[in-house]
């Protein structure tokens, strides 16, 4: 990890709290205490969720997405998602300039889409955020030049249609924030009911506990919007003007 001034900042907080700067808590310290009966029941509900119940969550997500202008597109497989993204790239033009550029996360699910081949047919270049011999400056410039950013996500909360994403190496936040159009791709089992389920997973699920809470979590509920001027809603004021969420419904 690059030195970003995190340690001095944390030491300042420790000093203000009267704690020793030498004491260094591990990630496990964030998850103290015992699991409550409620949290255990939530985890069991998630783990034992049936296909019918997952479909209901998807329906809830689609219903919640409408009012916030989030476009949710269920797809029955990887190839369907690839074709849909290629069609979207074909139909949408950049806000400025004529050359279409797309940037995407280095993510296993995104790699399975085979986007380079699909977009090459349109003569559209695809830049992946974790490429060999690529500097942070190069990544920033590629993201700025792109009009579509493609990411996956960790979870999506159905009740508020909120996409939840961790920032990791190769998963730069700016891919979802800078391009005019953000495309996110998830699988059906990544949809959770609400914030309570999300927190239960982050705190108690063994796989999530291994990752800890050191990464930044970004919550995205539809495209950027503001109604500051004359109470008129405008999309794309501080980020993407369109957000498309593709949900793969088929099991691998």
Walk me through the structure:
This protein is of the alpha/beta class and 252 residues long. It is 36% helix and 20% strand. The chain contains 10 helices and 12 strands. The strands form 3 sheets. It has a 6-stranded parallel sheet with strand order 1-12-7-4-2-3, with helices on both faces. A 4-stranded mixed sheet has the order 8-5-6-9. Strands 10-11 form a two-stranded antiparallel ribbon. Helix 2 crosses helix 9. It is globular, with a radius of gyration of 20 Å. The chain starts with 5 loop residues before the first helix and ends with a strand.
Task: Tell me the layout of helices and strands.
Elements: H1 6-16, H2 37-47, H3 51-65, E1 70-75, H4 78-91, E2 101-104, H5 108-111, H6 115-120, E3 125-128, H7 136-145, E4 148-151, E5 155-157, E6 162-166, H8 174-177, E7 181-187, E8 191-192, H9 195-204, H10 206-211, E9 217-220, E10 225-226, E11 234-235, E12 242-248
Parallel strand pairs: 1-12, 2-3, 2-4, 4-7, 5-8, 7-12
Antiparallel strand pairs: 5-6, 6-9, 10-11
């Amino acid at each position: 990890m690059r030195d970003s001034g995190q340690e001095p900042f944390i030491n300042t907080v420790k000093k203000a709290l009267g704690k020793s700067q030498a004491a260094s808590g591990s990630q496990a310290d964030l998850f103290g205490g015992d699991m409550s009966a409620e949290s255990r029941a939530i985890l069991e509900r998630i783990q034992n969720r049936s296909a019918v119940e997952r479909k209901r969550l998807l329906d809830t997500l689609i219903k919640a997405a409408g009012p916030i202008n989030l476009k949710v597109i269920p797809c029955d497989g990887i190839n369907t998602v690839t074709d849909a993204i290629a069609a979207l790239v074909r139909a949408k033009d950049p806000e400025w300039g004529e050359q279409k550029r797309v940037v995407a996360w280095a993510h296993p699910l995104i790699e399975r889409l085979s986007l380079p081949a699909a977009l090459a047919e349109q003569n559209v270049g695809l830049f992946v955020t974790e490429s060999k011999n690529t500097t942070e400056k190069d990544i920033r410039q590629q993201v700025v030049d792109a009009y579509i950013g493609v990411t996956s996500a960790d979870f999506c909360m159905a009740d508020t249609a909120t996409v939840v994403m961790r920032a990791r190496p190769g998963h730069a936040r700016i891919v979802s924030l800078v391009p005019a159009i953000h495309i996110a791709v998830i699988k059906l089992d990544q949809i959770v009911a609400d914030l309570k389920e999300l927190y239960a997973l982050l705190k108690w699920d063994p796989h999530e506990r291994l990752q800890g809470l050191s990464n930044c979590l970004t919550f995205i509920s539809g495209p950027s919007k503001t109604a500051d001027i004359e109470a008129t809603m405008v999309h794309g004021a501080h980020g993407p003007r369109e957000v498309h969420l593709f949900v793969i419904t088929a099991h691998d």
